[in-house]
Amino acid sequence: MSIYNIPFNTSRGEHTSLEPYRGKVMLIVNTASKCGFAPQFGGLQKLHENYANDGLAVLGFPSNQFANQEPLEGDSLVTHCQINHGVTFPLFAKIDVKGQTAHPLYRHLTKVAPGFLGLKNIKWNFTKFLVDRNGKVVKRFSPTVKPEKIEAHIKRLLQS
């Protein structure tokens, strides 16, 4: 199955997939609005603002699997992230990103781009996956890697 065909829901519960982002460079991030890494929303937004016109899609997938740091859902989650972090890039419906209940998108991402020591589990919020214009996952970044440290990788993919 292609990454573009994996179904998921929008923040409003509508069925969708990554098909609308085919041909774009994607930065896929599991987010949580109450996480200590939530200030990274600002850096992700800056990447979105600087490179969306060049073909970058920053895509947020909220998850509540880490210390219950995403209690919000749907419109309230989106509104909170807009007001508190200036987010205008897409945030989708909450999903599980690890364990037996991991969403198929995250099962795919972690299979093709394992983390440190080859571990497939997502360890915390704000793990980032960079996907090229052909749907190939090219790099995984840990939660501690700030969005601005990913910018050079994004620029290279946008230029290729």
TrEMBL record:
<keyword id="KW-0575">Peroxidase</keyword>
<dbReference type="InterPro" id="IPR029759">
    <property type="entry name" value="GPX_AS"/>
</dbReference>
<dbReference type="InterPro" id="IPR036249">
    <property type="entry name" value="Thioredoxin-like_sf"/>
</dbReference>
<dbReference type="InterPro" id="IPR029760">
    <property type="entry name" value="GPX_CS"/>
</dbReference>
<dbReference type="Pfam" id="PF00255">
    <property type="entry name" value="GSHPx"/>
</dbReference>
<keyword id="KW-0560">Oxidoreductase</keyword>
<protein>
    <recommendedName>
        <fullName>Glutathione peroxidase</fullName>
    </recommendedName>
</protein>
<dbReference type="GO" id="GO:0004601">
    <property type="term" value="F:peroxidase activity"/>
</dbReference>
<dbReference type="InterPro" id="IPR000889">
    <property type="entry name" value="Glutathione_peroxidase"/>
</dbReference>
<comment type="similarity">
    <text>Belongs to the glutathione peroxidase family.</text>
</comment>
